[in-house]
Amino acid sequence: MTNFEQSLEKAQNEEKIVYYDYLSYKRAAGWWSGLINDDWNRPIVIKKAKYNAEFLHKLPQYYFLGFPIKELLKVNYANGYCHACAVALSLYFKDFKIITCNLQNYADHYTIRSGKKTDYEHTFLLIDLDDQKTVIDTTFGFITDFETYKKIFKPNNIRIITSEQLEKVKPYQYIKSLKEYAPPLVFNDVYDEEKEKWYLSDEEQKYERIMQEYMDMCCNYNNIQNFHLTDFINRCLFNTSHRQCHWNWRTRLQFKEIGNTKYEYPQINLSSLEDDAFDNNLYSTCKDTIARNERILLNYRNPENSEANNLSYEKSNTKIRIRKFIHKFKL
User: Fold this and answer.
1) Residue 93 CA to its chain's centroid (Å)
2) What digits encode the pLDDT tens for the residues 82-95?
3) How many H helices and E strands in the chain?
């Protein structure tokens, strides 16, 4: 195991992190998918992990330039878009810090696994909760305290943007002004029979104007006194939230709405060692994997292999902190 994997598993065992993203939670519990993303494999040994359904469920329905933030925070949308997701998530809080850094442990983990040396530039949101610095990481789909986060990822080259600084940025002001803007998922173009030509609908023209104005703001932003803030808006935010990014998200959400995405996030809190050993929410597509999973289920039902964790989620400090955390949202 790499240092990243060891540190992550240690934090999970000590109940110092809780996953709000269901797929991230299942992977943390040991599930994995093969070459085909929908071919989910059950773990032989279930790892300890916690899932909190309240986080996403109780968020107000805000939008990031027309895209629902509740969806954007899920791993299928958030992965690869950490800069934009941290900014979108910040709309729910009055006071926060947006941290951009290099995750040294994860970069080393990736290099070992892939054989390709790389840095791992990353952005996450930091807030104060019960006098403790708390991290919400949209890429990994979990919440933890900052000290635990540093032990897991070993961040370096840390750069900070405060809520006070970001509130003065015109692109951010624009994003905030549109947090309740909800265009239709699919735009219906208009056909002119006389000219035999298709035209964009009024709603799509509005959306296009919004996106163009936003992208121009990002590209033209310049704060000569704060190089990092300028670089974050020009490069990090723009590269993860321009028009094509939004169309990618909207296309995936369209597939979900017409039934091509199988996974609905459970609306109850879960503890991997207690609640969902026999969970069937994740599907397998290959016959070999299905047969393998059925054999593993038989082992689960052997009492020697299915001892429950002594620390229940209901009694854990994690749940108490999350409940307090929910009330911190800026409505």
Assistant:
1) 17
2) 999 999 999 999 99
3) 16, 14
